Amino acid sequence: MSQVALSAGIRDTLLTIQRTTRSATEAEQRLATGLKVNSAIDNPLAFFTAAGLRDRSTDLAGLQDRMQQATRTIAAANTGIEGMKKLLETAQGLANSAAAEQDQTVRQQLQQQFNDILVQVDDLMENSGYGGVNLLNGGTLRVMFDPNDTTASLALTVNGGTALDVATLGVVSTATGGWTNGASDTVGDAAIQTQLTQLRTAITSLRTEASRLGANNAVITTRQEFTENMINTLKAGADDWTLADLNEEGAKLTSLNTRNQIAQTALALAAQRDQSVLRLFG
Question: What is the pTM of this model?
């Protein structure tokens, strides 16, 4: 096939139209996607830098979800401790009532209620887990703050990893008749005072554990907020590398369309000039 010769004016105008069309297509793509870098071909440095930032933000987001669940686990344990404290305070009231009671039958009834309360304390402790972890029943909570950390940044246990039951707290059930032994009730009174001392110590221990849980929860909450801010920073940094300025791209597309129309007019004029030459030979 023979090659068609074009005049310099037509060739230059066609080249301008081709370049303008490519630029307009690029602007349209950026407007459609909102990105100035859609693939590594557009800008390898920007594309892979943004990808690295987004990957790190994704890793941190996964840890953030675990931190949220960790705070739920601590909240469940703290709720359990509060319930145990209330039950032990109820037991205190029963013991104080028994100490002031002279009727041996009533004392025995109060003692039975006291022992029943202790059973409920242990039951409540066993029901204070969340997500398969019960900090009050020997469970361990491990929380990671850094995706590159191969071990848990925080390992939380309560009471050394053993069950926080009434026996561990130092409160023991009273044997039948323990509060009523002795004709003058001196033995029973002594038993009640022993129980009251045990209860005070147990409640103090629960308060200590609640305080420790609160301190650890504050650490997790602080790291959770930090992680959330870091994720936003990483995403914003990735966007800086890849997001297009839509106002700029819109203005650019309008300008390119105008230039394309002008080039089309110039092409028509160049073609007319070529036709005028042909008329000379007509």
Answer: 0.72
